[in-house]
Amino acid sequence: MTALATRDVTDADVRAALSGVLDPELDEPITDLGFVRSVEVDGGDVTVHLRLPTSFCSPNFAYLMASDSKDALTGLAGVGRVVVELDDHHDSDLINRGLAADAGYRGTFGHEAEKDLEELRATFRRKAHTAAMERCLTALLRADSTLAEDGLRSVRLRDLPAGRERDALLSRRSALGLPDAPDAPVLVDHEGRPPVAGDTAMFLRRARSTRISIDGNAHFCRGLLRTRYEGSGADQAPRPDGAEPADHHLLLPLTPLTSGTAVADATPKES
Amino acid sequence: MYTKDGESYFIVDAHIALWDARAENLRNVHGKQFIDCFYDYHRNLSPESEVWTYDEYLYQGGQRLMKDLFEDGYVDHAIFQPAALTEFYRNGFGQTEEAYELAAANPGRLTYNHNWDPRNGEQGLEQLRADHEKMKFTGVKLYTAEWHGESRGWKLTDPWAYRYLEACRELGVTNIHIHKGPTIRPLDRDAFDVADIDHVATDFTDLNFIVEHVGLPRLEDFCWIATQEPNVYGGLAVAMPFMHTRPRYFAQILGELLYWIGEDRIFFSSDYAIWTPKWLVEKFVDFQIPEDMSEYAPVTTAQKKKILGLNAAKMYGIDVPAELRLPEADATETGPRDPEAADLATV
Known about the structure:
Structural class of chain A: mainly alpha
Strand content of chain A: 5-15%
Radius of gyration of chain B: 19 Å
Order of helices and strands of chain B: EEEHHHEHEHEHEHEHEHHEHHH
Number of strands of chain B: 10
Oligomer: heterodimer
Number of helices of chain B: 13
CATH architecture of chain B: Alpha-Beta Barrel
Order of helices and strands of chain A: HHEEHEEHEHHHHHH
Number of domains of chain B: 1
Largest sheet of chain B: 5 strands, parallel
Radius of gyration of chain A: 20 Å
Shape of chain A: elongated
Distance between the termini of chain B: 38 Å
Number of strands of chain A: 5
Number of helices of chain A: 10
CATH class of chain B: Alpha Beta
């Protein structure tokens, strides 16, 4: 890698690295959400400022995104000093001090931290899978009026139409270590277990409320960021899942359902 | 009361505040951050015509409140749900004396609910009893994300919270409103988790637990818990204004709530002064689930009447004119309470 190391780090390198950092709760890259406020590159030294929709966003998620950002940038070839700062948060001072000192999660939060944030990440990886699964299955239900909720138990990966929603499901399954074989059942929990007979409708319904939550939160957070920081909408990528007519100003084709082929073409980025 | 198309609706606004976030009341930067966060909610979700100036937003006072709710807002009765936030505001955020006096002067129109913090220990318990002696409230609003010295949040399952809930039971304070803000410690897990409500609802079956903001941002966890407990209810504060900019999201929230917890356990709230009730009542009466959302049945006029006022009136013993009353749905003790609210489930 020595040849690469001689090339200066660019703004584009930094943003590409940050696009691998997800908001775990919303299951989207921080670059799509507009959370990257500024990028400054000086030789090999990089300074990045992050911003969030409110001062009171949950500090554990705020810390995860900020520390993941620092890790992603530190891993870039040819990078020198890396400074990541979170702006305008109630815990900005605490988090920024912790990042500067590479104090880690427990070193940053002291008595408020017990072990680590892995369980938190795992919880939201599961929710991301649940939501992606529900989008695919509700799309099938809406497209075929003869299909009943009980019939969803027999749906296999090969039964899903190709497109953005199936791709999203496959990537969420992979993150959980679930199989991607064509005959693998779709309606499963995070360990690949299907619902027991008779519980299918309830299982789907619970998944649906998870999907509604994530989509709703993702759009509300985007909207609040635009309200809080004028002009920040220009830094946001449209989110087709859960989009509404009010999102027209983001030049997003209206998506009447969580399904549909129009949606597949509307996505400039997919994590 | 609000009347449209020959139908009349008795309106109970189940979550209002009389706050003071003016500069002289700010204790530190967090007081400013807090009201700014509210103001962004207000600006982001209100129709343009309903947006206030920042200065108007900092403090309203009793007169303005009475006008916004009862003269302009169609509200028949409103319930104070105060947040103390004494770490952020010198004289607290919710103005206890002012709200209590206003309610005492307008007993037919206003109900004053109080609040407590289990971290105040024995002294707080004594204060609760003394306050109750004076104010005779039947409900409290609990904010689990309140800061308190080194602590930045608490859980309903904390041993001291149980002491306070036992005191509530003894005093006849039966309506426990809970706002699940991001509880901090430990940071390891999801701070919005609502699992503690499940525990206390099981252990205090004679108390009603009203989860404000219907558990948002964790609607799914709330629905699941509320389904299993006969004494858990959902307040629509913060969810209501999504009707304007995000009607499809609101339709899904409402559709899920009707399916999981049923039409008798949902309360309308404007969350005044974050929003004003006038436009919310008008829009809700006109609201319908979009036709293409075939997974939900349409919302009925009777369901709207219950949500807008009859449900909260029943819990608080507020007198409703006979011609505006409705019978309860024949729902099961635990849920899903209204699986018929799902179209797809029945095909």
